[in-house]
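WARN no homologs supplied; continuing
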Amino acid sequence: MRLHGIEYRRLQLAPPFGIEFGTSPGRALFHFVAAGSLYLRDQAGVTHVLREGDAVLLPNGGRHDLLSAPDMPSRDVKSFESTQLCESVCFVAVCANGTETSRTADCLVFSGCMEFDLGAMHALIALMPEMMQVSTLLDRQPEIAPMLAAMEREVCTPRAGSAGILSQLANVVSASIVRGWVESGCGDATGWVEALRDPRLSRAIGAVHRDPGRNWTVAALAAETGSSRSLFAERFQAITGQTPLRYVAELRMRLAMEWIGRGRMPIDAVAERLGYGSQAAFSRAFKRVTGQPPGAMRASSNMIV
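OK structure emitted
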């Protein structure tokens, strides 16, 4: 699991206020309420109360608002004036009209936009709830409570290095929220998670993850489960919504994207590691699954600073 912070904001909010957030695909959003209380309005228009000490992770990002009242209009957070505190953290002090306020704010919030990547387990992200609250995990993970207390101190009483410390604590708390969801059985998620709960299908999925470069066939996967070829294929597709070999192909390409992008591994080495007989065969498979050739992805990743 990788949570790489893109940008963070320390928000000082005096009501009435309404702030809109949203991210591009593959990015998560995190909010921690250090003082006061407010409302989070989700994409469906449903409002949730967040109180002092609450932390929430929106693993798939998406449009949502932080509000002083449930029916408040909102403005894009990027439209408010901000002051840079360090490389990736800025400070915003606003009311509903976007004017800077010097009076004591009713709410203090620390928010983060993060690149969220689970590598070969990326299928889990789409199955996560729209909003995950830390309050549901404190009984199972009491170690989170001191981290939240430290965040509250850093937000309410800024000290030397507070911005950097807060960004790191936000990453750790977010990762703990994800881990708590996984360890609790992934809630009521179905599909791929349901396949992992199946004693036989999970053996096949585990075998593919351990050795993605093997020349997998439906018969070989069925042998891992002790089932017939037809019974395995039928059950796998019924639960996951895709054929076993499509799953293998998508897993290989997720790994390839990680190795080519972050790992800067040569394309021919990736092809060999994933069991393709030639770089050309790998390139065709990569483009079929991702929509672009591996060379284009390598070029785009080299442009990222």
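The chain has two domains: 2-183, 192-303.
OK
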